[in-house]
Design brief:
The complex is a heterotetramer of chains A (about 210), B (about 400), C (about 210) and D (about 375). With about 400 residues, chain B is mainly α. Chain B has one domain. A two-stranded antiparallel ribbon of chain B has the order 1-2. In chain B, helix 3 crosses helix 12 and helix 14 packs antiparallel against helix 15. The longest helix of chain B is centred in the first third of the chain and has 35 residues. The longest helix of chain C has 12 residues. With about 210 residues, chain C is an alpha/beta fold. Chain C has four helices and nine strands. In chain C, a hairpin with an 8-residue loop joins strand 6 and strand 7. Chain C folds into two domains: about 140 residues, Beta Polymerase, domain 2; about 30 residues, no CATH class. Chain D is an alpha+beta fold and about 375 residues long. Helix content of chain D is about 45%, strand content about 15%. Chain D has a three-stranded antiparallel beta sheet with strand order 1-2-3. Chain D is globular and about 70 Å long. The chains are: A alpha+beta (about 210), B mainly alpha (about 400), C alpha/beta (about 210), D alpha+beta (about 375). Chains in contact: A-B, A-C, A-D, B-D, C-D. At the C-D interface, helix 2, strand 3 and helix 3 of C face helix 2, helix 4, helix 9, strand 7 and strand 8 of D. Strand 3 of chain B pairs antiparallel with strand 6 of chain D, so a sheet runs across the interface.
């Protein structure tokens, strides 16, 4: 009988019509500005620069190695290395980026900069409402706008950040142990040297 | 009891009485004219409001069928959405193609709206609520209805756009083809009522046996006529699944591709008003016009019933739109000429037989058979010719 | 299927064709067969229709540009300088013409084997860029050969409808060639630096742009 | 030369005479048209509503993807592949990763293979569901099936987002494995989504399969013969609807597909209805693959430990790797000259090659059939124009 399939289809739409009033899985719309989905940990929007401590300039992890600039597929990162050095979190003097610009209108959120960064200095943000009326100024993020604290990083990607922090802490501990060992070795050597120089005073003095 | 009945009657006639009261101080010579103007204004306001409500209802209903909310930002439940849409279309730029025939291009939407409103002149919206009781009312209605085809073709031709032209050609072919079954389907009612006057057709249906009304839809030929009329009315008002003239996935927007801003809105208005008018005619012819569905509900004002029936039909239109894909041109024509037309002709015969047979279950049996058998045979014929079926599939080894 | 066997079968089927095995050192092991353009269609038909081969699916057609190489070497020449025979060192540059290559990847739907890789090369990159079209053998080459004609400039003789595919008809160059220089009408980029910045500045100073 | 088979040759169309030219209408469908699925254009010559000629015009979305890839590192091209067929980024990633793995001889750990199959089949589900929705939209169904499809697609995209960080531009595969492992609870979530999918398919079938209008619109429309399908290199569900028994998952045994029991539905008419039904049936098979994969997934590393993110330089050579993408055979042909960038990077776009037969299918049909046929081919302009 012609019309059977049509009636079946109409029954289906009617079921959906009434179902949408009673079943949550039939009406999945999220009323966006008022309601929001719970944040997704793996989400990524655009990169930002992580800093430790309070002062973003002091604590910036980036050492301007320019690897991300080279690896960035759409070439949206622009870095200028500083002339001088500043101490990093471990107290080791490092270069820092004098300029660090990301053009987020070019950036395609691929996360490759994050993967290639050996210093865990650049990470992906989750903020998406970055629209701006100014194509060039508003979407070209400079160093200051890119810098976000480690606490912020921990708050948006807790699992990942914990792993990174553990890795960095281990690294720091290793460095410290190494430094300590070096210092001990140095002091031991000094002591030995001193002992030697004391024992053989007649030779004395470097030639 | 009589007091309540009187109240109900007054409520029923409140608009008629109000108009009388308003015009009673005017000189007698001016009264008919002013009465007409008042009624026309009322019709325009009421149905334009109904248009706004329908657009909201349609978007809401489609939304729910598609598991989304529909408009819900402007006003409570998005009720002010039609106003926002109106303001938007008023403030939009009105673009007329350089090569278009400006005068005709401008006139087409105006004519469409005017023609679609004119049909309401003969529709009895309530008891004693009809603008003019023409004794050729049904004839007038269909004559006015064919003016809409002219407007559509004017729009398509004057735009000088290929898509508009394709749309206009489709519209003409479709509307003319479906006018035949539309009229033939309504003739059965005229045969039975013996009158072309819409008022007497409704009056005839507004009586009851027990609690059941004498609507024509509750007879075999009336039911078949109603279904045929509704299918043809869907096609006449270019509604899905017969929305080929404006099939947006094929020919952009058909004949109003080159319209924008308020003229575009006028086309929408015209189409919806046309849909109300044909639905109103279906109600008048088959669903007893303003009469109540049960005898114990006659105290509800008559115009309420009319609009309730109208909204019910509109809801079905929306439901169909939310479900069905569009037909193709040749299929549309096949349906009109190979199913609708023979069916309508058979139906004429059935209605005649009904008239001459004595009332009783035998009459029911004979006439029902005469409706069902051709319907099955004709649809079998449609199906057989196409050989379409649900297929079974095999899998690779 | 063994490529050697296919080669000998083809040589038997198409007399006079010159086939050459091209080894592929990568772990993929997809070695290829270079065919000469004069017998290409006959070889292709054999590949498609021979009952043991039945390569009925031409999956992929690729154009490759191998630009000519300029090699500079020092040569010692005996020349008359100031009336005396002297040995003079001179720089001589030799230019190999380079070629455009078209690669066809064939599979068999019937026998479910493949791929076999066919290669054809033009004589050079400028004047002699004609190759026979294999579209009459496999329809699937139709759009892909048009694309190669468009982006590399290989002219396929016997193609039913050889027009540009992706670039517009008025475009003159072939953008996938390796020596193609893009137009410098770049959109202004705020992060422009180095080469891009230099070219953008040059473009702007020349009064370019819109 | 005489063995060239007739059914596969280009259609011999009668030349248009001068008088008939005057009565013909030439319209440009696209690049701005509601149902060309993007910026695709067809120059159609009509006689009334009958199609006399149809010439597709490409390139409105051309960005020379292949040229860009030649100046990127191998890894740098990975996010660009997302943008080829943007409906199914993950299978694009997969095809590219597979080609590079062939080129450099990289092994993929078992868990990574399972992850690939899971996300790949999820991609197939959402692509087919949406395609059917778009097809119905082209037929004028007011978007209802499309909305149902999008409702289900949202659930799958949510899964992608919580796994890869992005809904569409996933950038998930790496050479020798995948980028990240499953987050906690992901598999349970995915199991719920997959378990609910057959119910959606039942609804879809109820709504569409028996619908007379749909059958009338699609059956015997756009018939593609088996011979032409093979000759024109048609792949994927479109070829299988014409009865070509060729599924690369079965033929190449790539990844770990030979561990799963699944069937390949075949059509016998090659019309639009078959293409629609084959996709519907394929979704059911995908669901069964997903159930098996999620049941069997082992623990282990997700990427070849020898692979480093930076400094990847495959040895000179070439490789052609292909997978059964939702749209058809998606292949990548790479030539390495030993440098960090590929010397030549070629995409075999199934959408483009499936369009080869567009004119053959449309000539003699109606305007309304053009959009149905185009919709049933399943194209994405990001891939057609590259």
């Amino acid at each position: 009988m012609v019309g059977e399939g049509i009636l079946k289809g109409m029954a289906e739409t009617a079921r959906n019509f009434f179902g949408s009033y009673f079943r949550k899985d039939r009406l999945t719309t999220v009323q966006y500005p008022e309601q929001r989905d719970p944040p997704i940990e793996a989400a990524r929007s655009f990169p930002f620069l992580v800093y430790d401590g309070e002062d973003w300039q002091q604590g910036m992890r980036c050492v301007a190695c320019q690897i991300c600039e080279k690896e960035c597929p759409p070439k949206c990162i622009f870095i200028e290395k500083s002339k001088d050095k500043k101490p990093d979190a471990n107290g080791k003097p490092q270069f820092f980026p004098a300029t660090f610009n990301i053009d987020i209108s070019v950036c395609m959120s691929c996360q490759i900069c994050v993967e290639v960064c050996p210093f865990d200095a650049i990470k992906m943000d989750v903020v998406t409402d970055l629209s701006s009326g100014d194509r060039f100024g508003g979407l070209l993020l400079d160093r200051q706008r890119l810098a976000k604290s480690d606490q912020y990083y921990n708050s948006i990607h807790p699992t990942e950040a914990a792993a990174v922090d553990a890795r960095l802490a281990a690294e720091r501990a290793r460095q410290e142990a190494k430094a300590k060992a070096a210092a001990e070795a140095k002091s031991a050597a000094d002591a030995k040297l001193a002992a030697v120089t004391q024992a053989q005073p007649e030779i004395g003095g470097p030639r | 009891m009589t007091h309540l009945a009187l109240l109900a009657q007054q409520l029923d006639q409140i608009f008629v009485l109000a108009a009388h009261w308003l015009l009673s101080d005017l000189p007698a010579a001016l009264q008919p004219l002013c009465s007409a103007i008042l009624s026309v204004a009322a019709i325009i306001i009421v149905f334009a409001t109904l248009f706004a409500i329908t657009t909201w209802l349609e978007r809401k209903g489609l939304g729910r069928m598609q598991n989304r909310y529909g408009p819900n930002r402007v006003g409570p439940f998005g009720l002010l959405q039609p106003i926002a849409d109106g303001v938007k279309s008023l403030t939009k730029e009105d673009i007329v193609p350089i090569t278009a025939d400006h005068a005709v291009h401008f006139l087409a939407p105006v004519l469409l709206v005017a023609a679609s409103f004119m049909g309401f002149a003969v529709l009895p919206i309530g008891r004693n609520m009809v603008l003019v009781n023409l004794n050729a009312g049904v004839l007038y209605f269909f004559a006015i209805g064919s003016m809409m085809e002219l407007a559509v073709f004017m729009a398509g031709w004057s735009s000088r756009s290929k898509y508009s032209l394709l749309g206009a050609m489709r519209a003409i072919a479709q509307m003319i083809s479906y006018e035949v079954p539309l009229v033939l389907a309504s003739i059965v009612v005229i045969m039975q009522a013996g009158s072309l006057s819409t008022v007497s057709i409704v009056d005839l249906q507004a009586s009851y046996t027990g609690i059941w009304p004498h609507w024509f839809v509750f007879t075999p030929w009336g039911f078949a006529g109603f279904i045929l009329f509704m299918i043809a009315a869907t096609a006449e008002s270019n509604r899905s699944p017969f929305d080929l003239p404006e099939g947006e996935s094929e020919i952009i927007a058909g004949y109003y591709t080159e319209y924008s801003g308020f003229k575009f809105a006028l086309f929408f208005l015209g189409e919806y008003i046309g849909m109300f008018a044909t639905s109103g005619m279906a109600i008048t012819l088959f669903l007893g016009g303003w009469s109540a569905p049960f005898s114990f509900l006659t105290w509800v004002p008559s115009y309420v019933w009319f609009f309730a029936k109208l909204l019910a039909i509109i809801s079905v239109f929306i439901w169909i739109r939310g479900t069905l894909p569009r037909l193709r041109m040749d299929q549309l024509m096949n349906l009109a000429w190979e199913f609708m037309l023979p069916m309508a002709l058979f139906n004429l015969f059935t209605a005649g037989l009904w008239h001459f047979l004595a009332a009783g279950s035998l009459r029911w049996l004979v006439c029902s058979t005469m409706v069902v058998v051709p319907c099955i045979l004709l649809s079998r014929g449609l199906k057989h010719k196409k050989k379409f079926q649900v297929r079974t599939y095999h899998y690779s080894q | 299927m063994n490529l050697e066997a296919i080669k000998s079968e083809l040589e038997a089927a198409v007399p006079g064709c010159r086939l050459e095995l091209v080894a592929n050192p990568s772990p993929s092991g997809q070695h290829s067969l270079r065919i000469d353009s004069a017998h290409a269609v006959a070889v292709a038909l054999t590949l498609r229709d021979a009952p043991g081969l039945r390569f009925d699916l031409c999956s992929n057609v690729t154009g490759i540009d191998w630009p000519g190489k300029q090699t500079t070497e020092k040569v010692k020449l005996h020349k008359l300088v100031d009336g005396t025979q002297q040995e003079v060192e001179e720089l001589r540059t030799t230019t190999t013409p380079g070629s455009l290559e078209v690669v066809y990847h064939l599979f068999s739907i019937e026998k479910k084997h493949g791929p076999i890789v066919l290669r054809m090369s033009t004589i050079d990159r400028d004047a002699n860029v004609h190759l026979p079209s294999l579209t009459p053998v496999w329809r699937s080459a139709e759009l892909q050969e048009r694309e190669i004609f468009d982006l590399f400039g290989v002219v396929f003789d016997g193609h039913p409808d050889l027009r540009r595919l992706l670039m517009w008809d008025e475009f003159v160059d072939h953008p996938m060639r390796r020596d193609y220089v893009g137009p410098d009408d770049y959109e202004y980029e705020p992060t422009a630096h180095d080469e891009v910045l230099r070219r953008a500045n040059q473009h702007l100073s020349e009064g370019g742009g819109r | 030369m005489n063995t060239i088979a007739d059914p596969t040759a280009q259609p011999e169309l009668e030349p248009l005479s001068e008088t008939s030219k005057e009565q013909l209408l030439e319209i440009a469908m696209g690049p701005q048209h509601p149902s060309t699925h993007g910026v695709f254009r067809m120059n159609v010559v009509l006689d009334g509503e009958h199609v006399v000629r149809l010439k597709p015009v490409f390139g409105y979305l051309h960005r020379n993807h292949e040229k860009i890839a030649e100046s990127e590192t191998y890894l740098g091209s990975m996010p660009y592949t997302d943008r080829l067929d943007y409906m199914c980024p993950i299978t694009n990633n997969w095809a590219y990763a597979l080609a590079v793995e062939k080129l450099a001889g990289i092994q993929v750990p078992e868990r990574a293979e399972y992850l690939r199959v899971i996300v790949g089949e999820l991609t197939r589900l959402q692509n087919h569901a949406c395609l059917i929705g778009f097809l119905m939209q082209d037929m004028g169904a007011s978007g209802t099936p499309l909305m149902y499809a999008f409702r289900e697609r949202e659930k799958i995209l949510d899964l992608f987002e919580s796994l890869t960080g992005a809904r569409m531009m996933c950038n998930y595969m790496r050479f020798g494995g995948c980028r990240v492992d499953l987050p906690a609870g992901w598999l349970d979530q995915a199991k719920i989504v997959v378990a609910g999918f057959p119910r959606f398919l039942d609804e879809f079938e109820q709504l569409l399969v028996g619908n007379e209008i749909l059958m009338d619109r699609t059956q015997e429309v756009g018939v593609l013969s088996r011979e032409l399908a093979v000759s024109a290199g048609i792949s994927g569900p479109m070829a299988r609807a014409s009865g070509v028994d060729y599924d690369i998952r079965k033929v190449d045994h790539y990844s770990i597909y030979d561990r799963f029991a699944f069937r390949v539905p075949l059509g016998s008419h090659g019309d639009v209805y078959d293409r629609f039904m084959v996709r519907l049936l394929e979704m059911r098979e995908s669901v069964s693959i997903l159930e098996q994969a999620m049941r069997d997934i082992p623990a282990g590393p997700i990427v070849d430990p020898k692979m480093k993110v930076r400094g990847f330089r495959p040895k000179p050579g070439e490789a052609y790797g292909r997978i059964e993408a939702p749209k058809g055979e998606l292949g990548f042909y790479l030539i390495s000259d030993g440098s960090p960038n590929p010397y030549r990077y070629r995409v075999r776009p199934p959408s483009l090659i499936n369009l080869t037969v567009l004119e053959d299918l449309c000539v003699g049909r109606n305007v309304a059939d053009i959009v149905t046929i185009l919709g049933s081919i399943d194209i994405v302009l990001g891939e057609v124009d590259r």
